[in-house]
Amino acid sequence: MMNRITDAVKHLIIINVIIFIVTYVLKMSFSDSLALYFPKNPNFGFWQYLTHMFVHGSPMHIIFNMYALWAFGTPLEQMWGRNKFLFFYFSAGLGAGAIYTLVNYFQFNGVYEQLIDLGVSTSEIQNILDTGSYNNPLITLSREEMIGFYSTYHTPAVGASGAVYGVLVAFGMAFPNSKLALIFFPVPIAAKYFIPLIILGDLFFGVTKYSVGNIAHFAHIGGALIGFIIAWYWKKNQFNRWN
Questions:
Q1: Of 4, 19, 211, 223, whose CB count within 10 A is highest?
Q2: Any idea what the Cα angle at residue 131 is, between residues 127 and 135, rounded to 5°?
Q3: Can you tell me the distance from the alpha carbon of 216 to that of 164, in angstroms, rounded to the nearest whole number?
């Protein structure tokens, strides 16, 4: 949808681009304090639930997110108004971070408890997390499980994708028959079919081992879920425009 960019969307894109230039292009060292780390990692800070939404790991990462924010966020801001759109955007992003952390916690804690049950001491577990190596014959978990355990502890989440997925869902609910044609799927398809399809794809990749690259699928799902709840509630109650 070729819409004139709205104020909130414009300023969100500007902030994202500035932070990308500072952290990725200029390699400023404070990017680690902005990314969302696992709560048990010493780099974790509660502010990261907000700041991770403005950090991106590559040019393609920020291009896709900012394009989607412009294309799908602009008509929503035109419909809702600036304040309501900003409330929605940040709610979806914060919810995405919280759900991503919750899923990681259950996965991490599951392996941690298995290691304890196998007789591995807490100090040795911490050493595994610190160094990524171990030679204890008591550890019978698969290499994939141990790599996942280590990666959950160390790998931070970055990007506006969670908030953007909330925007996608709200767009699909507000404009279900809008035809979308993206680069990787050039055949036009209605939003009411396309958006559930990509969310199901994230769910599939999130629960299987077929994911390509380091993608926070459950952050996408979390943002989509929070976005759906808020958009459904507003639609049901016919909330007025917030100026």
A1: 223
A2: 70
A3: 13
- CA gap 110, 29 in Å, rounded: 33
CB 120 within 8 A of CB 141: no
**Residue 219: strand, helix, or coil:** helix
For the stretch 30-75, pLDDT in tens is 667 899 999 999 999 999 999 999 999 889 999 999 999 999 999 9
Task: Give the C-alpha separation, 240 to 238, whole Å.
Answer: 6
Q: Convert the pLDDT of each residue in 175-218 to its tens digit.
A: 888 877 655 556 777 767 677 777 776 666 656 655 555 566 67
* Helix H or strand E encompassing 66: helix 59-80
Q: Name the strand (E) or helix (H) holding 1.
A: none
Q: Is the dihedral of CA 104, 209, 43, 120 positive or negative?
A: positive
* Token pair in block for residue 202: 């994230």
Residue 99 near residue 218, CB atoms below 8 Å: yes
235, two tokens: 């639609």
Q: How far is CA 152 from CA 17, 52, 82, 147, in A?
A: 27, 16, 36, 9
Token look-up 């502010």 returns 47
H/E element holding 141? none
Q: CA 39, CA 224: separation in Å to the nearest integer?
A: 23
